[in-house]
Amino acid sequence: MLTLATTTPGEPEIFASLQGEGPSLGRPSTFVRLSRCNLACRWCDTAYTWRFAGDNRPHKDELAFDRSANQVTLSEEEVATRIAALSPGRLVITGGEPLLQGAALARLVALLPGMHVEIETNGTVAPHPALDGQVHQYNVSPKLAHSGNPAELALIPERLAAWAADPRAYFKFVIAHVDDLGEVMALQSRYAIPSDRLFLMAEGRSPAELAERNRWLAETCLQYGLRFTDRLHIHLWGDTRGT
Predict the structure, then answer these.
(1) The whole model's pTM is what?
(2) Residue 222 lies in a domain
């Protein structure tokens, strides 16, 4: 069984859209958003996947979501049927933190032969062995200090080293301030992350926020030879579920 986020109560967040971030930006994709996360980012734009009533971890919106309305459990077979009904052959599994459900994901992906599989992860959880061989691409987004997560939880050395050594893993760092760059460069140096697999992305949940930060972030990427990624879905549809 898989625990998924919802778009509306009872309706799992499974949808077709354009990939909005990272190396696959602009590609038609089928998305599956899972529920639950082991981290708690202050600026998280999918807090409805983890900040349920009774969870007092800090978040800038200070909203607590009703679990029954924002979480649904389905069999792997039902999720596969819903995915197969959509046309894009690129599957993006996101969250929350998808790798918390690695064994169930392995069973799901096995039901979808021929699909290109991407997993978006915060980089703290090792892939389940049965899943790992079925994944074509990992979009790894380690959380910097401004996320509010303690480094001992968010930046696990053995996991960062493993991702850096895996050519399928692309790193995407969320940048809120110019000062965040120093932390990124230190991590790149410590773990030998190749520049062509390292993206910088502005933190922002509106086109206006992104436009302001993208100006100086683009210049930063040019200066340091890093890759820039926007948040295409925010510009097209705003900060909404199922996009």
Answers:
(1) 0.96
(2) yes
Of the pLDDT bands very low, low, confident and very high (cuts 50, 70, 90), residue 53 is very high
Could you tell me if residue 242 is inside a domain? Answer: no
Token code pair at residue 169: 């893993």
Question: Burial letters for 122-161: b for 16+ Cβ neighbours within 10 Å, e otherwise?
Answer: bbbbebbeebbebbebbbbbbbbebbbbeeeebbbeebbe
pLDDT at 237: 97
Q: Element (H or E) spanning 121, and its range?
A: strand 116-121
State how far the Cα of 169 lies from the Cα of 16, in Å rounded to an integer: 23
The C-alpha R_g of the chain, in whole angstroms, comes to 17
Give every CB contact of residue 170 below 8 A, 6+ residues apart in sequence. Answer: 22, 23, 137, 138, 139, 140, 197, 198, 199
Q: Band the pLDDT of 188: cuts 50, 70, 90.
A: very high
CATH number of the domain that 183 lies in? 3.20.20.70
Q: Which residues contact 152 (CB under 8 A, 6 or more apart)?
A: none
C-alpha 214/C-alpha 204 separation (Å) is 10
Total of domains in the chain: 1
Interval 27-50: pLDDT, tens:
999 999 999 999 999 999 999 999
